[in-house]
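Demo today. Your pick:
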Amino acid sequence: MDKIRTFIAIPLNDSLFRTIAEVQRDLKTALPGIRWVRPETIHLTLAFLGDIPEEFLEKIGNSMLSIGRSFAPFKVRIADLGAFPSRKRPRVIWLGVERCAPLMQLQAELAEKLAAIDLPGENRPYTPHLTLGRSRRPDPGAESILESRAALEIGILPVDCMVLFESRLQAGGAVHIPRHTVALGG
């Protein structure tokens, strides 16, 4: 039984990719110890599924289709720079995504549909964000750098589809291959 690493996400547009690349260029000089995500692979994750049997792809696609029909396209604001678990001890550096009702409902319904086909979600609450980079070791100066840039305004993300991606891990970073795309609004 072949397994593939998968996640469901909202893709970004070219304008956001360019803006995010500029933010990363600025941060790279200030935070040299961070492993930065390639801007063209950044996305808004709705559900990380991990390694799943390939035969689940059709079930997942059908679940996405039934949800997609019931949601009209909407927009979310991308703003603010933060870190998990905190700016003081950053392991993941991220851009914030507005927790608007349509986004939170879309993610919750998706999680429910996936659980119904035996694909349980994560055990922690959904925190919408765009991962910019990861750190393996503490950087004592990171907190002040992140605080000084905390109030970034990035732009608006139109949410008009969701994509089931296959993620292939390679030496130069993950390659994301769209396996199923569902437009919102049917």
Observations:
- The CA atoms of residues 69 and 102 lie 13 Å apart.
- The chain has a mean pLDDT of 93.
- Strands lie at 3-11, 34-36, 43-53, 74-85, 90-97, 129-135, 153-159, 161-168, 175-183.
